[in-house]
Amino acid sequence: MDRKELQKSILENSLKAGACHLGSALSCVDILIEFFDILKDEDVFIFSKASGVSALYCVLADKGYFSKEKIAEYLKNYPLPSVEVPGVIHSLGSLGHGLPLAVGMALADRNRNVYILMSDGECQEGTTYESALFARQHNLKNLYIIIDANQYQALGKTNDILNLDTAFEFLKNTLPNCEIRKTIKGGNIDFLQGTKGHYKNLTQELLEQALCQI
Amino acid sequence: MPDLRKAFFDYMSEIAKNDKSVILLVGDLGFSFVEEYAEKYPKQFINTGCIEQSLIGIAAGLARGGKKPYVYSGSIFLIARAYEQIRDDIAFNNTNVKLCGTGASQFLGFSHNWIGNENEEDLLKNLPNIKRFYPQSEIELKQALMSEGCAYVRL
């Protein structure tokens, strides 16, 4: 699945399901494609930026965990990543729960790689730093973190609300496999960028406009 | 209520000896009780330090990875401080984690309040899946620790 197909799937299924959080889903499209290209069967993948769930379900369907016809139904019934959806190993919703879970799984079996996709908003949660210190203390080299730094949160620019520059430095210095990836919230769809795409629901007309821009 | 802390670590030694997937996590608590277990089973023991919220998530991750985590801490830190983690990562997800809390009714007061956590029953009773045990004897304690699935055990 390439970027364009994944974007299209996210948009169409979000409209069908009446789901929002499109900005969050669209900012992590490239990272998800990259992750699922390198994931082996025995690896663990944790999608911690739970509100971007539509992107996760679209990728899981593409990888054959379930049929593409089920995406909208799952999005409607499980609007946050849930174990009832094939391919999801732990139900997540609140920010800051994915990293402790990933750390525990990496510790449970050091021969298995654990990959986690986090949001930059989650880097405002205290558990991020507790877990990072623990991961370093226990030398968890099999833990791989990418932070989707789309630089916006619900009410505005992340750095205007709670600046993360020094936090990112801390995480990079503390965790050997932690990458901060700057992305664009809403991807290349102008009316979903920044805070505009956080809670916006699509209409048929907006979907058509969006599809022209991907 | 009997002080079951010594019996807890004795039983944990027995459980850890018989099942290598058992792992005991303590939140920097257990002074003068935990040492013997920690020395005997270093690969099945972690003092996580004071990271009470992440401790619950880490335990859930260990359970998801096939381990059987037992978490030992003061009730107030274990239940009240990490309540959302217990709700989401243990109860909602039904992960096989035992939460073992001490000092629930101890007086460690400040400003005429209690640091005890006698209301843990109120906090836990409406959550799905998680069993609650208030053992009154060593035998009841052992039964609680050997129970299936996620549980809270007051020591």
Structural account:
Helices cover 44% and strands 12% of the residues of chain A. Chain A is an alpha/beta fold. Chain A has a four-stranded parallel β-sheet with strand order 1-2-3-6, sandwiched between helices. A two-stranded antiparallel sheet of chain A has the order 4-5. In chain A, strand 2, helix 7 and strand 3 (143-149) form a beta-alpha-beta unit. In chain A, helix 1 (3-17) crosses helix 5. Chain B has 155 residues and is an alpha/beta fold. Chain B has helices spanning 5-18, 35-40, 52-64, 75-81, 83-92, 120-124, 138-145, and strands at residues 22-26, 45-47, 68-74, 98-102, 131-133, 151-154. Chain B is built from seven helices and six strands; from the N terminus they run H-E-H-E-H-E-H-H-E-H-E-H-E. The interface between A and B is medium-sized, with 29 and 27 residues.
List the helices and strands and how they pair.
The complex is a heterodimer of chains A (214) and B (155).
Chain A: H1 3-17, H2 22-27, H3 29-38, E1 44-47, H4 53-62, H5 71-77, H6 98-108, E2 114-119, H7 126-137, E3 143-149, E4 152-153, E5 156-157, H8 158-161, H9 165-174, E6 178-182, H10 204-213
Parallel strand pairs in A: 1-2, 2-3, 3-6
Antiparallel strand pairs in A: 4-5
Chain B: H1 5-18, E1 22-26, H2 35-40, E2 45-47, H3 52-64, E3 68-74, H4 75-81, H5 83-92, E4 98-102, H6 120-124, E5 131-133, H7 138-145, E6 151-154
Parallel strand pairs in B: 1-2, 1-3, 3-4, 4-6, 5-6
The CATH C-level name of chain A is Alpha Beta
Provide the succession of SSEs of chain A.
HHHEHHHEHEEEHHEH
Proportion in helices of chain A: 40-55%
Rg of chain B over CA atoms, rounded to whole Å, is 14 Å
In terms of DSSP E residues, the strand content of chain A is: 5-15%
Organism (chain B): Candidatus Shapirobacteria bacterium GW2011_GWE1_38_10
Domain Transketolase-like pyrimidine-binding (chain B): 2-155
Pfam families (chain B): Transket_pyr (PF02779)
Protein name (chain B): Transketolase-like pyrimidine-binding domain-containing protein
